[in-house]
Sequence to fold (392 residues):
Amino acid sequence: MRYAAIVDRLANEGARAWDIHDRALAHRERGRDVVVLSIGDPDFDTPRGVVDAMIERVRGGDTHYGWIDGGPDLKAAIAAYRERHSGQRVGPENISVTLGAQGGLYGAAMCVAQRGDEVIVPQPAYVTYESVVRATGATMVDAPLRAERGFHLDAADIEAAVTPATRAVMINTPHNPTGAAYGRGDLLALAEVCKAHDLWLISDEVYSRTLFDAREHVSPATLPGMAERTVAVDSLSKSHAMTGWRVGWTVGPEAFTRHMYHLGLALHYGPPTFIQSAAAAAFAGDFPEVDAMRARYEARRDLVREALAGNRRLRVVKPEGACFMMLDIRPSGLSSHDFSHRLLEDAGVSLLAGEGFGAGGAGFVRLSLTASDADLAEAVRRIDRFTRALDA
Ligand SMILES: Cc1ncc(COP(=O)(O)O)c(C=O)c1O
Fold:
């Protein structure tokens, strides 16, 4: 039987980046001792108050069809949260609740890009972006995030990638996989490019609550003239350790949000009702766990940096946020693909190869901080031993 062309556009390098993670899980299944640092799933529990709210709603019978793009309580809670943490004032007409940030990214791309369009994505980039952009029929155009700039965005690189076909730029700050957090200056320069070329900005902010060294999150939607062309995408997955709940949302112009409604109608007919209710509790609670998790990631970042500081076969890139670290393994003489595969086979640690995040990730591997301190310390010991063996 014949399939539509979209199936090939969805299966790409990004999807294959998970190969090593799948192999690590298979090793583990067979009883091998593997420290898995290849995925960004928080090792913390969802705050108890959210779990209790969900159970209460299920027991209370909140188990029928619900709102397609978020009920009024949840939208009001998201609007208040957005104002508290990003300073942007929005109403329910600007908010669409999605199945995780992933659902928001997909919806945003679908609503603004199509065949013949180009979407600029700074590389390295989170692995699903390619599928999301290509699903629309548009072409993904790379712009470099340069290691020598600490992987910070340079608006000049975005501008250089603009053509008459460019429709949107898709960014992520704090950034997966590099941990770079873009400052106001970089974002103001990017905003000028977007305005000059009449571009949408899709701004993935899933790590906005996980910033280190007392940094503050800057959402581009709050910059002059940007709210009408920005779609902010966020979720409870990382901030509240709720990856499995699939609660995300977009904040964008009113017309955009109406289009998202129609997409939700076709795609899922609304996120589960009892989960929407529990999510409203998550926003209202402002749980202390959220800040405690951020502090833990920061402490783990320091633990890894200190432990690997003397290693001359690699260099740690200091992340400013999110829950990952890039290791520059170019001094090891191995490609990041070979480094990560040999590290898994020889030392039992799984990290993702930087190439999986696009050409800009070559020479780097990504280590996730979402494992216990003890597991991280063990992984770092093994990485150290592995790289010292390369000398021999
Ligand atoms: C940058 C980035 N965006 C989006 C997502 C997807 O998040 P969610 O679980 O909310 O769909 C992730 C998950 O790892 C991510 O790292």
The mean pLDDT is 94. The chain has two domains: 6-45+289-391, 67-285. The pocket of pyridoxal-5'-phosphate is lined by residues 40, 100-102, 126, 172, 176, 204, 206, 235, 237, 243, 248 (CB under 6 Å).
